[in-house]
């Protein structure tokens, strides 16, 4: 047998990609303690904490407006499956945390969606989970965004869009409130 055949089976690792943005990042350098563009291993039983206190937090943000411990991410295995996920918990008593428009108060926690935007204060973090199989650890890969990760969304037009083969005049003749209609009336 060759050494290739005897080698351990390589398992993929769950990786949490985090892209950070703050409008004052160039002047204030609040991300200077983060290791960007390099994957970092985190033990599965460790809680990844983000905040101002470098003695407690694995990921330090150098900003006095950030709580000593702002939030945490906990890696876990979903019950009765082989899937893994992350739970995010707000650890700030003063600042609410939003995850895709879901507002978390102090000690509130939710499962982190596979792709979401985490916001607190002027901070925006795009989080994307790359699934893996390893049980003992996960990886983080931090990135720095030059533009906001959260853009203002344009509201869709409230004007109905006609389906194919239906005359636009049909919609113009409709009342403002919806009415029931028998299919034979068309």
From TrEMBL:
It is found in: Cytoplasm. Residues 49-121 form the FHA domain. Its main location: cytoplasm. GO terms for biological process: innate immune response; positive regulation of canonical NF-kappaB signal transduction. GO terms for cellular component: cytoplasm. It comes from the Eukaryota. InterPro entries: FHA_dom (IPR000253), SMAD_FHA_dom_sf (IPR008984), TIFA (IPR033621). Keywords: Cytoplasm, Immunity, Innate immunity. Gene3D superfamilies: 2.60.200.20. The keyword Cytoplasm applies. Belongs to the TIFA family. This is TRAF-interacting protein with FHA domain-containing protein A. The gene is Tifa.
């Amino acid at each position: 047998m060759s050494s290739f055949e005897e080698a351990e089976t390589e398992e993929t690792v769950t990786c949490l990609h985090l892209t950070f943005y703050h409008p004052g990042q160039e002047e204030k350098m609040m991300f200077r303690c983060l290791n960007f563009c390099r994957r970092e291993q985190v033990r599965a039983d460790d809680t990844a904490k983000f905040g101002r206190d470098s003695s407690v937090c694995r990921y330090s943000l150098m900003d006095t407006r950030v709580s000593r411990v702002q939030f945490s991410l906990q890696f876990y295995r979903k019950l009765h499956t082989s899937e893994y996920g992350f739970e995010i918990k707000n650890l700030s008593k003063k600042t609410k945390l939003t995850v895709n428009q879901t507002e978390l108060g102090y000690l509130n926690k939710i499962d982190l969606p596979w792709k979401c935007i985490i916001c607190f204060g002027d901070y925006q973090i795009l989080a994307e989970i790359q699934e893996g199989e390893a049980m003992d650890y996960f990886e983080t890969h931090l990135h720095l965004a030059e533009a906001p990760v959260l853009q203002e969304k344009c509201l869709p037009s409230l004007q109905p869009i006609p389906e194919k083969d239906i005359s636009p005049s049909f919609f113009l003749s409709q009342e403002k409130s919806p009415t029931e209609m028998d299919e034979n009336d068309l």
